[in-house]
Amino acid sequence: MNTWLLQQEGFNKTNAAVDGSRFLCSNGYLGLRGMPEEAASGLFPAITLAGVYDQFADRWREPVNAPNCLYIQASLDGRSLSMEEAQGHCAKLDYRHGIYSRETRFGQACISSRRFVSMASPHLLADEYRITFLKAGVVTLKAGISTDIWDINGPHLFNFQHRTGDVLVTACLTGQKKIAVAAAQCVQTDFDAEESQSEDAAGVFRTIKKTVQAGETLTLRVFSGVYTSLDTSDPAQAALVCSQQARAAGFSACLQAHTGAWEEIWTRSEIALEGDDDAALALHASQYHLNCVAPRHARNMSIPARGLSGQTYKGAIFWDSEVFFFPMFVYTQPEIAKSLLHYRVETLQGALKKAAEYGFRGAFYAWESQEGGEEGCTNFNVVDVFTHRPVRTYFRDKQIHISADIAYALRNYYDITGDRTLLKDGGAKAILECARFYLSRANAHLDSDMVDFADVIGPDEYHERITNNAFTNQMIRHTLESALLLKEIFADQQAWFAELLQEMDYEQDWALLSDLYCRIRPPRERDGVMEQFDGYFDLEDCTLSDVRGRLCDPREYWGGDHGVAGTTQIIKQADVIALMAMLPERFTDEQVAANWAYYEPRTEHGSSLSACMYALTACRIGRLEEAWTLFMKTARIDVLGGGKQWAGEIYIGGTHPASNGGAWMIAALGFAGLQMRGGKLSIHPRLPRQITRLSFPVTAAGKNYRIEVTHAGGTITGL
Length: 719
Ligand code: BGC
Hints:
The chain is α+β, with helices and mostly antiparallel strands. It is built from 20 helices and 32 strands. Beta-D-glucopyranose binds near residues 313, 318 and 461.
């Protein structure tokens, strides 16, 4: 079995949304959904641009999809070869080299193509398209830049201007910020043919017409460039030059540069798993999907919750980045981990503004962060399936753990890399502002020394506006501790640190940090089980299937005021267990075991962020069969096209980078038991019986290592 290949026979239009994500090609600058070249917007093709957002009318702000510059439609004797008429279809995605290919059989011809989004050159897309004729006739190939763009809350592009010529160019502007977006396309053919060009509302195209014989094959190589005015002052020209230069270099040379870049990525990050090919494939798939959306072209960008597979979740950055994506990167490609955190450091202003809007001090980061740290999360984030009315949700206002998650990653970055520059360049300031936010958000009482955090939402979003979420409170303590620790980290630069505090007007707040740290109310416990929030144990204790049985519509939202889960102990995702996975040293094995046994049966795993947290903790307490099952669930999500597609009436499909990162975490931190503590790298192998060997590279404190784990034990070898 080829553990690097996703292959699918047949074409099912109703699966197009899911398949486009499963077969995604991306390089962090843009994401190209895996649909055939001729796919019209009904099949959800898209080239989603990282970090370019737009709002149309009063709809949700979301990332912009570029014009479809790999569009090709073949016709034979005037009849279009459309996917509806395909007699056979096979799509493949080579995870190792990020190459999508397809072979589609029609009655009269067969189309095969392979394409990639260059990992070596972020603005370049290239496609090699071959068509073989089974009978003689006149073929037309309409190749160009289509403006038939799939948007969820669009349209976002206006003022289209097309240019014909050797290179076709489309330039346009986003509606809200007038960001110029340009795509260019040029081709290379291995045959002579008549060519005409046209432009209309649907785009700009060249039409190649030729009389062909049965058995003849035509090859068209397409080179496209995409730029925006965020990259350069003349994106149309840059896109044109990019496509022309690629053509001059040739398809093979571009492909070679691209595959070489992928080889480099795998050298630095591949976890080789032996013993179970399905698992090896799933792990490659997970690592592919997370690696391909990493912002390698930037130094201050993060990754949206659905990667670059489309506009779901408004293309926004969630806590997913710090808690689920960050670990693989910090241990394999720390410069990417740094970029994710630079994004937070540079969007601190947005977090200060958000805190102030709610009447607090310090940094309250956006729950769904867009460019500049702008909050993309609306007050109405779900649509009720019965009334079709927007439901007031409180993720934006109450999920205050977001700031603690960011502070947690900033500290982990330092602990794992030993690199202080990020803290020095604004990271320390961000941690201090997060801590300040919690000082001002705390609820103190006149008749008690204890401090509560009331009216919050923890990771389990089904229970809104609760008090003393154990996860949130403990993560806040961790933030306060990290803030205090900064003084030690910069012990040799006391003057600089004192100046920072002064500049931030922080002297008084500094004195309060340890005070708050000691006063935060600890969670209630029952039989060693930590109560998820005040009053959780008093909620109806029923089963998951009881709650599921109460649904009147499968798309119904389980949370919010009227949700079926809200009055029960059924939770959406790991919450207490997420805490135990993230801060393992704070809990004993017995505590983890008791909480796991209690919470797992009560968890819907309704978020793709859940299973990996349970798997990680399952490894620790020796529940290896369960860890294995949860690992497979996590790692296979984008192989199989799993995960929820709907929250109420809102489409939430796409790839699942949090699960992708979760799969790396389970394998490396769970099965191999990798950890970096006190500047020391160690492993504690606990392989499930299905795996015979794990081998992977790791970077820690600026040094490279290889970890090898079998049932006989493990080794860490310095490289
Ligand atoms: C989860 C959040 C997560 C978001 C984006 C939601 O369904 O509950 O924890 O951050 O999806 O992945």
